[in-house]
Amino acid sequence: MLVIHPTAIIGKDVRIGRNTSVGPYTFIEDGVEIGEDCFIDSCVRMYSGVKMGNRNQVLHGAVLGGAPQKLDFDPNIRSGVSIGHGNIFREQCTIHRSIYEGKDTTLGNDNYIMATGHIAHDCILKNGIVIVNGVLLAGHVTVGEKSFISGNVVVHQFCNIGDYVMIGGGSRIIQDCLHYSLVVGAEAGKVLSINAVGLRRAGFSPEDRKAIKKAFRTIFWSHLPLSEIKVLLHENPNEHVQKLPDFIDKSIRGICSGRRRRPMARDLSPGSYDTGDHPLTDIA
């Protein structure tokens, strides 16, 4: 059963699947495609070029498929936003279409974009991602599987956020975030540790987490040359560790560096801390 509120405005050649509802004062432009079992709330704006799969929820005031915020963008370019299945778009989030003719900003399946989150043109979001309130993704950002970006994080254009990454609230990301990492930093994001909680919840075995933690020690806290680090990573038989050197090789902006570690000290007097670099604490 298709339910469309009488105040909604539906353009020409719009395709809406079964069991989908469209709320009051929503405006869906010409040629939009919406799958089955979707919920489109009130005051939503969906521009031409949006293609959406099944079981998606778009809540009040969300704007999907708007023009990119690029000063020299030609509005006559025909581009769009491609969305998979099972995504949730909360209140007033925005997603912009590609700057390239015939290309799309792309989202996979089961992503959760919270209120006021912004996804700029030509971003690629994979599956199972959580974007918390106020996150700003600049153009051409890629976000990997089941990563979690906390509130008010800002991500520089062309950055690549790997799989199972956790970024702490208020961080400023200006370089790529390696798979499995926990990244924090208001000035510039730094790798604090592996994302132990996220990996455990995702079903990574203790052996896998231990192998990843050892690899992170080598990458961020060993002070070895990059050439030697990549040799050691390639020699590690763990399938998850094997993904790390490839990510590093493909990085355009470089990867976030490891944060300088300070061990806990009972004596808080001046000089009681060793302020050099330290390996990861045993949190896996």
Structural descriptors:
single chain, 284 residues, alpha/beta, UDP N-Acetylglucosamine Acyltransferase, domain 1, eleven-stranded mixed beta sheet, nine-stranded parallel beta sheet, 4 helices, 14% helix, elongated, disordered C terminus
Query: What is the mean predicted local confidence, pLDDT?
Result: 91
- Classified in CATH, the superfamily of the domain at 3-199 is Hexapeptide repeat proteins
What fraction of the residues are assigned to beta strands by DSSP? 15-25%
| CATH topology title of the domain at 3-199 | UDP N-Acetylglucosamine Acyltransferase, domain 1
Can you count the beta strands?
28
Computed CA radius of gyration, to the nearest angstrom: 21 Å
> Which parts are unreliable, with pLDDT below 50 for 5 consecutive residues or more?
263-284
Description:
This protein is an alpha/beta fold. The protein has a domain at 3-199: Hexapeptide repeat proteins (UDP N-Acetylglucosamine Acyltransferase, domain 1, 3 Solenoid), CATH 2.160.10. Helices cover 14% and strands 24% of the residues. The chain has helices at 196-201, 206-221, 226-235, 243-250, and strands at residues 3-4, 9-10, 15-16, 21-22, 27-28, 33-34, 39-40, 45-46, 50-52, 57-58, 63-66, 80-83, 88-89, 94-96, 104-107, 112-113, 118-119, 124-125, 130-131, 136-137, 142-143, 148-149, 154-155, 160-161, 166-167, 172-173, 181-184, 190-194. The protein is elongated, with a radius of gyration of 21 Å.
